[in-house]
């Protein structure tokens, strides 16, 4: 993010345009801030889910090379249990499907949050102009 200093003219213009902050404006600013925090958390969670899916896909590819009769260690909680290859592949595919559903839900929430943030930006910039910075 690039920051810059206001020129003397911009500073004078901003100073003469003092807009009173009403209660409803402050509520919108606070709402925007909370949404931005939630957006950041959801983006981090989404990155984690994508990484988990990538790991599961990699493991599934590795298991394609395994022998049908092999017992494969599968992690359940904090311990590993040896299971037959078909059962492990079934568990991996259900885990992948669950992660896909989680990713879709997170992307939906993120879209709703971004839409509401955009609406708040429009309303706040219309009221305060250049004297407020809502760029994230």
What does the model show?
The protein is mainly α and 136 residues long. It has helices at residues 8-16, 23-63, 85-128; strands at residues 71-76, 79-84. It has a two-stranded antiparallel sheet with strand order 1-2. A hairpin with a 2-residue loop joins β1 and β2 (79-84). α2 (23-63) packs antiparallel against α3 (85-128). The longest helix has 44 residues, at 85-128.
List keywords for this structure.
136 residues; 69% helix
Q: In summary, what is this structure?
A:
By secondary structure, the chain is mainly alpha-helical. The chain contains three helices and two strands; from the N terminus they run H-H-E-E-H.
H/E series: HHEEH
Uncertain residue ranges: none
**Quaternary structure annotation:** single chain
Helix content range of the residues, please? 55-70%
- The N- and C-terminal alpha carbons lie at a distance of 9 Å
Strand content: 5-15%
User: Going across the major beta sheet, what is the strand order?
Assistant: 1-2
Main pleated sheet: 2 strands, antiparallel
Number of helices: 3
**Backbone shape:** rod-shaped
Rg, Å, rounded? 25 Å
* Mean pLDDT across residues: 88
Structural class: mainly alpha
Number of strands: 2
Secondary-structure topology with pairs:
Elements: H1 8-16, H2 23-63, E1 71-76, E2 79-84, H3 85-128
Antiparallel strand pairs: 1-2
Helix pairs in contact: 2-3
């Amino acid at each position: 993010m690039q920051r810059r200093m206001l020129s003397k003219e911009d500073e004078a213009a901003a100073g003469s345009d003092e807009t009173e902050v009403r209660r409803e404006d402050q509520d919108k600013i606070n709402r925007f801030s909370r949404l931005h925090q939630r957006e950041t958390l959801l983006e981090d969670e989404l990155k984690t889910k994508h990484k988990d899916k990538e790991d599961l896909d990699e493991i599934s590819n590795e298991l394609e090379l395994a022998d049908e009769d092999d017992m494969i260690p599968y992690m359940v909680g904090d311990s590993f249990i040896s299971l037959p290859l078909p059962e492990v592949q079934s568990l991996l595919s259900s885990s992948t499907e669950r992660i896909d559903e989680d990713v879709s839900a997170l992307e939906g929430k993120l879209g709703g949050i971004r839409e509401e943030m955009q609406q708040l930006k429009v309303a706040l910039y219309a009221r305060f102009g250049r004297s407020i910075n809502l760029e994230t």
